[in-house]
Amino acid sequence: MGASKAVFFVLLLFTIIFLTDAVEVTDEDINSPLVSYLLAKLQQLESKIMVRPNIRTTRQTTQKPTKPPVVADNKQCNCQPGVVTYVRWGNSSCPYGTDTIYSGVVAGSHYSHEGAAVDPLCLPPNPQYLKYNPGYQGHVRVFGAEYQISTGSPIDQSHDRNIPCALCQAYGRTNKIMVPSRYECPPGWNTEYYGYLMAGGYPHKAATQFTCMDRSLEQIPACILLLSCSAAKVPFLARFKVVRCGTAELENMNILSDQRPPQNLLNGAVWQACIFKVGDDVRQDMLALQIMELCKNVFHQVGLMLYLVPYRVVATDPGCGVIGCVPDCKSRDQLGKLTRGSLNDYFYDKFGHGDSQAYQKARANFVHSMATYSLLTYLLQIKDRHNGNIMITKHGHIVHIDFGFLFESSPGGNIGFEPDFKFTQEMLDVMGGKNSDSYKEFTSLFVRGYLAIRPYCEEIVSLVTLMLDTGFPCFRKNPIEELRARFRPQLSVKEAVKFILDRINSAYLNIRAVGYDVIQEYQQGIYCNKADSQQ
After folding, report:
1. Structural domain spans, the chain
2. CA atoms within 13 Å, Cβ hemisphere of 126
């Protein structure tokens, strides 16, 4: 959001409810740091205060729905045919089991305008205009919205960030309500989402209404700052509207550099994010991702269900580059700071109880992607696997990013502190434990992936050999010999299986993986799951 777009929204960080009659709450009480602090320390309170407020709920009735409803706690229900629409504020996607009509951005009146409109808007990404004159349209104006959250709050990382929203459609529903000061659903209702009660600040002239903001507090970057390659080593995130077309289509349209593409072409545009990085040689990332692309093609040819996202990286100059973002995901660091729970707690919260179809599908996605990235982390010896470099998609896949340390390089002066790949207790818990079918599937996929890629050892070695003269930090002594040795080409299939199973057992709950997370939390503030650190 540029400087000309003033904020109007979201300063008040909710209310609390006691299990007694209503009491008077003053402005001083609402703005007390204690109220914000209670969010992160809910489990430590011994009083009978319920904190995390605001549920979007929909009413169920007794006839068959046109589409299956979201059923809480595995209880069966029949619902009358019907459709309910609602806005999910603070999140760009809709809950599982509902349809996303569109994703947009939150907007509304300026916070200083008296007599302005009260209700917030969820603006779609491609607005259409009727007749109008350039400039302000009379006395009604719409401005973008930002989170305004006090410093020191457990959720202050969202401060000054633009707010997304999504228009959702739920089937088999007849009514919807927003329940303040509760996060549990009343009997006979389904929880659509819950979060924080927010509104404009009380000193502001413009009136607003209380809004249930999703607990994820998803963010849209407010601006982008571009620096030259001589600037500090800091990444910058940008979002662009992208139209996919080939050279022939561009030539047919004959668009000049100072012309705007036709509107019919822009209607198919999608938002895509990328990171401008300075101070890192992203050519190492390009090498790692090229090898991953090769492996992905091999897995596809042999029919292995291994999930891999070789995102795009372009080196623009020595020490500079553009890195594509993996869509619809958050880092484990972000999830940890938002929820303060384990990875399995997050899966339960997002996908439902362990027996639900959504949870089982997300667990399968996690296992398939975990096997892929664990195998490639071992083969390429990718290091620096802290929770900021591990992403979780909205479907439960695990995705690794940032391959600045691989082969013979590692943080801390190339001491090789981390194990062959990261496999912590919370990852095992998502699988259901070591005796679970999911863990057996993980081991099976890991072994089959290793056997599938072994015949292509020399192709991978040749690709790496071409880069030896670049002087990459990852090439120090004998990278080619060590890479070839990890494929064990001299072993029989049976011997190779035993070898790779030993690698899995070596990485399983390895204390060095947890130790590295603890170090990164202490030095960089990157989230570390306390249960892992106590294993």
Report:
1. 17-130+137-214, 294-312+327-533
2. 12
Least confident of 32-36, 143-147, 417-421: 32-36
Place of tokens 């969202």: 158
- Number of neighbouring beta carbons within 10 Å of residue 151: 8
Q: Tell me the pLDDT tens digit for each residue of 274-313.
A: 888 877 778 899 999 999 999 999 999 999 989 999 999 9
Burial-class residue 402 by CB neighbours within 10 Å (0-12, 13-18, 19+): buried
3-state helix, strand, coil in the chain (%, to 5): 35, 20, 50
CA distance 363 to 442: 11
435's tokens: 């005796």
**Dmax over Cα atoms in the chain, in whole Å?**
79
- The backbone torsions φ and ψ at residue 349, rounded to the nearest 5 degrees and listed phi first, read -65, -40
Residues 6+ apart with CB under 8 A from 184: 55, 191
What whole-number distance in Å separates Cα of residue 109 and Cα of residue 9?
8
CB-CB contact of 123 with 89 (8 Å): no
Which residues, 6 or more positions from 399, have their beta carbon under 8 angstroms from its beta carbon?
309, 326, 329, 369, 373, 390, 391, 392, 393
Quote the distance between the C-alpha of residue 418 and its chain's center: 25
The per-residue b/e assignment along 40-67, b for 16 or more CB within 10 angstroms, e otherwise, is eeeeeeeeeeebbbbbbbbbbbeeebee
Contact 285, 403 (CB under 8 A): yes
Q: Does the pLDDT of residue 18 top 60, yes or no?
A: no
Over residues 347-376, the pLDDT tens digits come to: 999 999 888 999 999 999 999 999 999 999
Q: Which of 12-21, 119-128, 130-139, 374-383 has the lowest mean pLDDT?
A: 12-21
Q: Does domain 294-312+327-533 have CATH number 1.10.1070.11?
A: yes
* Among 370, 428, 373, 446, residue whose Cα is nearest residue 406: 373
CA dihedral over 139, 140, 142, 145, signed as positive or negative:
positive
Tell me the residue type at 293: E
**DSSP per position, 446-462:** HHHHHHHHGGGHHHHHH
In this predicted structure, the answer to whether residue 521 has a pLDDT above a threshold of 50 is yes
Question: Which of 89-103, 200-214, 401-415, 490-504 is predicted most confidently?
Answer: 490-504
- Residue range 233-254: mean pLDDT, rounded: 70
| Residue carrying structure tokens 């010999």 | 481
Long-range contacts of 265-272 (CB under 8 A, 24+ apart): 266/126, 266/241, 267/126, 268/243, 268/244, 269/126, 269/241, 269/242, 269/243, 270/241, 270/242, 270/244, 271/125, 271/239, 271/240, 271/241, 271/242, 272/239, 272/240, 272/241, 272/242, 272/324, 272/325, 272/327
Per the structure block, which two tokens stand in for 140?
A: 């009604």
Rounded Cα distance between 148 and 120, Å, is: 15
pLDDT of residue 78: 37
Residue 342, Cβ neighbours under 10 Å: how many? 21
Q: Who wins on pLDDT, 302 or 257?
A: 302
